[in-house]
Each structure stands twice: as C-alpha cells, then as structure tokens.
Amino acid sequence: MSLRPFVSIVINNYNYGRFLPEAIASALDQTYPSREVVVVDDGSTDDSRQVIAGYGDRILPVLQENGGQASAFNAGLRASRGEVVLFLDADDVLLPGAVESAVAVFERDRPAKVHWPLWVIDAQGRRTGRIWPGQRLPQGDFREMTRRNGPSISQSPPTSGNAWARDFLESVFPVPEEYRLCADDYLYALAPAFGPIGRVPRPQGCYRLHGRNGYLTKSFDERLELGCRVQDQQCAVLERYFGGLGVTADVPAWKARLWFHRVRRAVRSIEASIPAGGTFVLVDDDQWGAGDAVRGRRRRHFVERDGCYWGPPADDSAAVAELAGLRRGGADFVVFAWPSLWWLEHYPALHEYLRKGARAAWWDEDLALFDLRGGNGAH
Length: 379
What we know:
The chain is α/β, with parallel strands linked by helices. 36% of the residues lie in helices and 21% in strands.
C-alpha cells in the first residue's frame, strides 16, 4: 500500500433513485482527495439511471441487469482501482471526513478492514438519536480467535460502516452470487481471519431505516433461515482457507457458537415447549428481532411500553412487578434467551419469584424457559 492510498467508494443501488443523490453527494464531498466514486446500478426499474447520468464524468457508472447485492459488489470491485474500498448502500450517506478517518487507521495499522458506527436516520434523512451498532465496536487481531471459534466472532456495522483493504477483498472475491442480500455479512465473517480489524470510534455515516430495507422487510423466520445459510457458507470458506494453511478447522464447534444457529436451536426449543397460540415473554435485550410471533406464538416484550421494548428493569423490584403484570395480562411463559441469560443472576429476586411461582420447563445454554401457568401468580 502506498503512503497515501487511493480509495474507491462503490455505491450499490437497486431502485433507490429517491435516495441515490444523497449517497453520491456524500461520496463526492469527501475531504480526502485521492478517491473515485463508482456507482453500480443493479438493474433498477425506477429513475436511478437518469440520476446517475446526471453526474457525467464525476462518477464511474456500472450498469448491469439485476443480479443482487453480491453481483453488484463483484462488478464494483472489478471496475474500481482503490487500494482501500468502501461499499456504500445507496440509501445511506457518508459524513465528509469518513474516508480521511479510515485512511488514517489504514496507514497506521495495515488492517484487513476499518469500521465505524453509523447514525440512524429516517426516510427523510432526520437523525433518530440512535447509533448503530449500539455497542462499542471491536478492534485488534482476531485471527487466532477466528480459527478457534469460526466466523462472525466480532460485531460489525452494516455495509456503509466499513472500509476494506483491496488485498483482502481480492483474496475472497467474488462474493458468491447467492448473496442477493447480506453480501456484506460474507465480508464481515472472513475479514478477521486475514488481518487486524481497525476502528474509528465516532460515527462516520448515516444508516437509513425507511421500511423498505431489503433485509428488514423479511419475516423473522426468513431472516433466521437466511442467516443460517449465510453462516454455513462462511464456515465453508474459512474451512478451505485454514485448510490451505495446514490448519484443521472444527466446523461443528463453530456452528454450535454461531448467532443464527443458536437462535434457531432456541426457537425450536420454544416450539417444543410452548403450545401454538400461547403467549410468552421474550427476554432477549431486543436482539432477536423476532417481531410479534415465533411461528404462531405471541411474544411480549420485557420491559414493554406501548408494545415496544423499553430496556431492562431499573432494579429487582421493578423486574418482579413488570413480570407479574405481564402474567396477569395473559402471558403463559417467560423465556430468557441467549444472550440475555445474565438477567437471572443480575435480578436475584426475579429469579426467586420464578423458582417459587413457576415451573422451569426448559434450561440449556441457549435459553431458560419458565411456565407461568398455575403456581402462585399473585407475587
């Protein structure tokens, strides 16, 4: 990599013509001068191509038939020249110093990728006050951890919160074309095996939630099955990669730890324990994204306000009162799901309430499920 790397911002677009001008403007307005903007239109049927044509030679257009996000990523990388590559979703935007901030980390640490959090904005571009991801992003060398634990060992922001070293991308591209969605997840999972992960601590862009995001419009069941297929593919790629290094990978052990596989096991346990039509309280720190039902079982939030998750209880007394209220309101079961089993230690009075007034119907490393029917519900 040269002292001041050339950077490619690759915008992938499909029918986001109404958002595309903001994405292109944010790429062109970067403070870092040594860069290009590549716009891949993946067979849009709206006015996207007219929008792209309006920028003339300020951008490099790549126009193709619809093939999905992976196809757009592959075409964008082929057309680009950057030693550092950012993939920007067409409904998101970068802040002006995003590339400059990422390059500073590349120059210092020579990572496989650099990532940063994103402000969440609505369809009109207004900030909601949320930052995604909500937790502090990791940084460092995770190569040995990836060998032991498999893909997806560290949290990552979505597409527009990452910059990638081209030598890493060329080692793992093309992205399998089956990734019509979640092509970015393919890269998140593999990068920690190829080099350090760098971090810019402050948000460097905006992640737009507008009700038509391809992944978020899928049902919980669809997202769960897609996630498991994607993680199976990631395991296969890493198994081949480590095999080329002469390292034997324990793929079954990897899958036992992976997020979507663990959630799928837990869902199957819920289905085995809670009858169809039953109502259960799901304690998951709002991380499952399960919607209102898990295959015919109605979910209630804990803590719940206006039907939405409100955060953990302030203290033990509040936890007991909240669950007792949900119980009186018709909840038949309460499920403490991985990664939120810590609640049972953090709220000992709540745990005691359940021990005395409910039946433990399921308990393993993925979830603890209590049957609230019968017992003393007046606690």
